[in-house]
Design goal:
By secondary structure, this protein is mostly helical. It is about 75% helix and about 0% strand.
Length: about 450
């Protein structure tokens, strides 16, 4: 029996259309998912890294600076996603990248996130093997398929997962951490110096901001379900602030308590059911977003390149199986360097998108008029040379200038270069469905130049 059309459309999660107003969600549920992304074992490790090289209050300010950077990026990109009801890879069509540029964005995001899906799945399986025994390859299959099934059912299913996983993670994590800190004086841990090699405040803020910058860039995949600008701000500030402070500062205290930066082993070594629940809940609620956003990117790619609409759930199954198999064979260990390289290539997407959407605004009237009817603008540019210039410049700065936060450097450079060159050139090229129409407005070249 065929499913009703509206059920199929919802299962597809509006991957090639706007999220309608009637299907927007309460901000607190989305904040729970955002917090779920932040409250992971990797966040404990980040806090522990800071704690091993910093005093408590220095680490506090490093977390604060890093969180502010992430919140600013997430809020601006997220507001654009909320206003238009579009995912990141759809929004960039009218956000400076055009038709061909959105394909490149889709490829970069899909490869990056499916790669991290496989890497996290492999870590997940290794942890279950240490806790419960059994072959790692079998756990890789079980855990990979579990996350794939959750993502197949989309945003609603991922929300329910966060509602269950986040509270469970917090309860069992606090039980485990409480045992580790039970013989320590909190005042002493706060007052003590860094047990390891001292990190500067700038280096600490770099670690914090760089650790989640890609998650900030793909915020529209989540915020397109928000109802208002205020909701975007509330869910972003609450989710990121709680994640950075609550989990990060606990990691700082653990590092001071055990005088080591490798405090993940404390949580992992908790025997039996508690240790298993910590691992499962910590991984599922971030790895589902890796797979989800990569599937949205591939749907956009097929729509633009092949003019073929494929179902997001089908892509999820295919990529979930692929990522699972790669983790089974351990191939992804060889690609972590490549995935880290993509971590410098993704942030410029956010910088260009924000400048185009909020400052250059070439498509404001098209977006405004189509938004009223719930449709997409009929026109968008084929490609934008200015974007290519800004993206390449930002990537080179982020990769080869070893100062500050590489991912943030690339984001800022992309925004500045895109703004300056766009104002100087003032060029627009548009492609409408079914025909090609080019319109260019060149800036006047004065004879005196």
């Amino acid at each position: 029996m065929r499913k009703p059309e509206n059920e199929v459309h919802k299962l597809d999660d509006y991957s090639l259309s706007r999220v309608p107003e009637h299907d927007r969600r309460h901000w607190f549920g989305i904040a729970t998912m955002r917090f779920g992304q932040m409250s992971a074992l990797s966040q404990f490790l980040l806090g522990a890294t800071l704690g091993f090289g910093m005093r408590f209050w220095t680490a506090f300010w490093a977390l604060t600076l890093g969180a502010v950077i992430l919140e600013i990026v997430s809020i601006f990109v997220g507001i654009a996603g909320m206003k238009e009801g579009l995912s990141t890879t759809m929004l960039v069509r009218w956000g400076g990248f055009g038709r061909l540029g959105s394909v490149l964005v889709s490829v970069v995001i899909a490869i990056s996130l499916i790669g991290w899906f496989g890497v996290q799945n492999q870590v997940f399986a290794d942890g279950l093997n240490q806790l419960l025994g059994g072959p790692v390859w079998l756990w890789s299959i079980v855990t990979g398929l579990l996350v794939t099934v959750i993502v197949v059912y989309g945003f609603l299913s991922m929300g329910y997962t966060a509602y269950i996983a986040v509270p469970l993670f917090m309860v069992v994590a606090f039980i485990s951490i409480g045992k580790a800190l039970s013989h320590q004086s909190l005042g002493h841990l706060i007052a003590m110096g860094a047990p390891g090699h001292v990190l500067s405040l700038a280096a600490g803020a770099s670690i914090v901001a760089g650790g989640f910058i890609i998650g900030a860039i793909i915020s529209p995949d989540m915020t397109r379900y928000n109802r208002s600008v205020t909701d975007v701000v509330k869910q972003t500030v609450l989710g990121i602030t709680l994640g950075e402070y609550l989990i990060g500062l606990i990691g700082v205290l653990l590092a001071h308590a055990v005088k080591s930066g490798n405090v993940i082993t404390i949580v992992m070594s908790t025997s039996g059911v508690i240790g298993t629940v910590v691992l499962v809940t910590a991984t599922i609620k971030i790895n589902d977003w890796n797979l989800y956003s990569s599937s949205l990117g591939i749907v956009n790619l097929f729509d633009v390149v092949f003019h073929k609409k494929i179902h997001r759930a089908s892509v999820t199954i295919l990529f979930g199986v692929l990522g699972t198999l790669l983790s089974v064979f351990g191939i992804l260990n060889h690609f972590i360097g490549f995935l880290t390289l993509l971590g410098v290539a993704v942030p410029p997407i956010g910088g260009i998108l924000v400048v185009e959407y909020f400052f250059i605004r070439r498509y404001k009237s098209d977006l405004d008029s189509s938004r009223l009817s719930g449709a997409l603008p009929s026109a968008y540019e084929s490609w934008n040379p200015v974007t290519l210039i800004a993206w390449v410049a930002a990537f080179l700065i982020g990769e080869f200038v070893h100062w500050g936060i590489p991912s943030l450097n690339s984001l800022v450079v992309s925004a500045v270069v895109y703004f300056i060159v766009s104002k100087a050139v003032n060029r627009r090229q548009i492609v409408t469905y079914g025909q090609v129409e080019t319109r260019e407005w060149q800036a006047e070249v004065r004879e005196s130049l």
